[in-house]
Amino acid sequence: MDSFLQQALEEARKGYTEGGIPIGSVIVHQGKVIGKGHNQRIQQGNPILHGEMDALQNAGRYPASVYRQSILYTTLSPCSMCSGAILLYGIPKVIIGENRSFMGEEALLRSRGVEVVLVNDEACYELMQRFIKEHPEIWNEDIGE
Question: Are 62 and 83 in contact (CB under 8 A)?
Fold first, then answer.
């Protein structure tokens, strides 16, 4: 596993141990992590604090030119909201740990010129599946079921 995806998975595991939804994300600019985070919707009671949004928030204020040269790593396929943020900031490449648990807006990202790379990592998948099995009501609440 790529070291940056590994860091995203570590963020997801952190979220899991906090009782939250185990999705992690890392933003990398020129080989350096500038932001990382994990889904904290449960922990913070914040419906928009998904892993990608937390990573963006933790990255802080950068000019758009930095994001246009960055790569976003995420353990799970990005939802509509997070894909919108990827497009808004012009992030050109997204590395996805897995999309079997949830298929986000990969087609939209590709249609807008974003390079989308699916790793199909088993550790990302197993962590998400464990959470879904243990907390189906939280998972269904988050994905709008």
Answer: no
Q: What is the mean pLDDT of residues 52-72?
A: 96
Strand order from edge to edge, sheet including 24-29: 32-38, 24-29, 70-76, 93-98, 115-118
pTM value is 0.96
- 134 catalytic residue (yes or no): no
132 is written with which tokens? Answer: 């879904």
Which residue in 10, 11, 18, 52 is the catalytic one? 52
Query: What would the pLDDT profile of 7-27 be if each residue is shown by its tens digit?
Result: 999 999 999 999 999 999 999
Angle (CA) 34 110 123, round 5°? 60
